[in-house]
Amino acid sequence: MKRSCGSSARGVGPLLLLPVQAALMGGLGRLVTGPGAGHWPLSAEASIGRDLAEGRDPVTSGVTELFSVLAGTQAVIGVTLVCIVALLVLPRVALRSEALFLGVSVAAQSAVFVTVTAFVDRPRPDVPHQEAAPPTSSFPSGHVGASLALYGGLAVIAAMRLRGPWRYAVTGTLLLIPPAVGLSRMYRGMHYPSDVAGGLLNGTLTLLITWFALLCGRRSAAEHDATERPDREVPAPRSTGGPVLVVRHPYGCPDELADRLATVLREHGHRDLRWIPTSSDFPCGTLAKELGTLRPTLVVVCGGDGTLRACTEILAGTRIPLAVVPCGTGNLLARNLGLPMDPAAALAASLAGESFGIDVGRVRGDGLEPMRFTVMAGAGFDAAMVRDASPRLKSRMGWAAYVLSALRHLRDPGVRLTIRVDGGRRLRRRARMVVIGNVGTLQGGLPLLPAAQPDSGRLDVVLFDPRGPAGWLAAAGYLTARLLRRRPPAGPGAAAPEGDSEAGGVLEYFSATRIDVRCAVPQPRELDGDAVSDGVRLTAEIEPGALQVYLPRAPGAPQAPPAEQLPARVPGTAS
Q1: Please, which residues have CB within 8 angstroms of residue 98's CB and are 6 or more apart in sequence?
Q2: How do residues 378-408 score in pLDDT, each as one tens digit?
């Protein structure tokens, strides 16, 4: 299939035009401040500034202050980071190219702006300023350029990804922000009209170059799925004789989905289905009671990571195989095992595969009875985010509820702690968050624990301690680079006993079979996305191969194409 921009994005080649852009903007700035300054329309700019200053009123001043803040350095960095994370973790298929496009656009515009202002020195308008003037040149406007790179970049993504009337409403609203910022900066006495025009030109050129380099010719996985992917054949049914217990979360797996899953099970030879509903008081229903009277051929868990954890508590060590049907908010275990995110597709793929043993973590602490987990245990920032996420928003918005909760805790202080790895000496550290993982990939493929594997026989640990905006940027840059490179994970035990530091010390990694963490003050704690009681201690150990899980391929085996992006054709569904 031909595309207007080639078979894929152009790569880094077009980014080499950025120095040309900087030279062009620098030459334009020299023209504005030199030979062109005495000619119309540049000669009339001073009077425009005086007229705006004389007509100021409190209401307009308040509105212009809002737009000026929206384009300030802190706001641009913060909104950019939040949007990059959202692009990576909220969609079912992570929008990696779009996230990279947004980050590079904002960073490139800033780099060109700083370069130009080093060679162009234009003083601010000689009128009363409504805010402190930055030490940089008035030409070009950095606020306007940054707002166009950020909000214009978001408009490009919205135009590419949204459908229906919202597409035009969102795109149009975002494109109105940079001109509004420009008018606000002139009104507040910070820039001449030509400075604003220069900022708009700088931002526009940056977006064009980065779009051509990173997005031109890209297609979503859904488009690929709809136009080029052939249907998979349904495997022949297996002959089975034993009962199948189906643990079902009533909200995550409504009746219509349950009927589809039953069809998949029957088409794979499972006829004796026994359904077990869950509740808030009994997260695995009556599974333990049922196992006391019979030994099933298979246990199917239809729920999220919390439901899986509750069932794992009972199934670990029994050798009874389990099939994972992702019906929750995060579904991190299913993602890390390479399963499709469509529940029926995940079940069909699992039943067509084999049973593999995966590890299970076991954790205990002060006020915390020994409990198993399959994904991650944590204390600090991530646990506070999980604890304070609104259940109502989780049901309506999915992972977006966690993002909103995380924003409330960005300023939470770090805590002093000690960590002891495999019985070694206690290491003193400071961290905002401690995560102990059996697997390491978050929503959207973000590799928080790049070396973690569900069958490695080890647990991986990360201490996260960003200090100020620079720390958050360093961590985001490191994790995004790992995501885009998709570097193969290190083998078991790759982390040094004293810890491996990354991102300038913001992230520190350990690997062990037993980890003991003690905090100076009580911290929020979580297991597999469920908040548990606050406390100062977490001790985690690995149970190698304790859980049998049906999977289409061995854990960690390469998959092409990724199951998350290209879901399988499911028996019992319409073509």
Answers
A1: 87, 157, 160, 161, 215
A2: 999 989 988 888 777 666 666 666 777 777 7
